[in-house]
Structure formats: structure tokens, C-alpha cells
Amino acid sequence: HVKVPWGEYPPEARAWALELQALPSDAPVGKWLYETHADGRRWIGLKAGTYLADRAIASTGKSAADLVTMPTADVLSAALK
User: Fold this and answer.
1) Rounded to whole angstroms, what are the CA distances from 58 to 28, 41, 42?
2) What does 14-34 look like in DSSP terms, one character per residue?
3) In whole angstroms, what separates CA 33 from the centre of its chain?
């Protein structure tokens, strides 16, 4: 029950998730997960991931542990519908 800054996402987290989804497969992972972006955003990937997990849990009624066994495409579909 500890709040961490990289786990709290802003209202525009859906747009961030869609932005990440549009990146090429060879995009630098560390830049999007940990570094401060040129526009000042930080932990974009971590915050978007938390948003996606929260939305998929709400949409499916499954636990985070259950989502681990789901195909990624199914989790994204549940989170972004």
C-alpha cells in the first residue's frame, strides 16, 4: 500500500500507452521506462504500464497475477477498449 511516483499515472496515460504502442520495435526501452523525456515526462513506460494493468484488471475482473498468464494482445485489448 505504498504509493510510488512511477506507479501513479496522469489523466493522459491512455495517450501515453497509445504513443508507446506506435513506437518501432527497436525503440530504446530504457529511454521510455526510466529517463526523463525531452518534454519533461518521466517514467512514461512504467506509468503507462500501471495504467494498462489497472484498466485490464477493471475490464476483465481478473487479478494482476491472472493477467500474467494472458497473452499481451489480450491484456492490451482489455485495457484499451
Assistant:
1) 30, 26, 25
2) HHHHHHHHTS-TTS-HHHHHT
3) 10
pTM for the model stands at: 0.91
Contact 52, 77 (CB under 8 A): no
Q: Give the list of residues 6+ apart from residue 47 with CB closer than 8 angstroms, or none.
A: 6, 7, 8, 9, 10, 13, 16
- C-beta neighbour count of 42 within 10 angstroms: 12
pLDDT tens-digit readout, 12-71? 999 999 999 999 999 999 999 999 999 999 999 999 999 999 999 999 999 999 999 999
DSSP code per residue over 22-76? TS-TTS-HHHHHTSBPTTS-BSHHHHHHHHHHHHHHHHH---HHHHTTS-HHHHH
Amino acid code (one letter) for 68: V
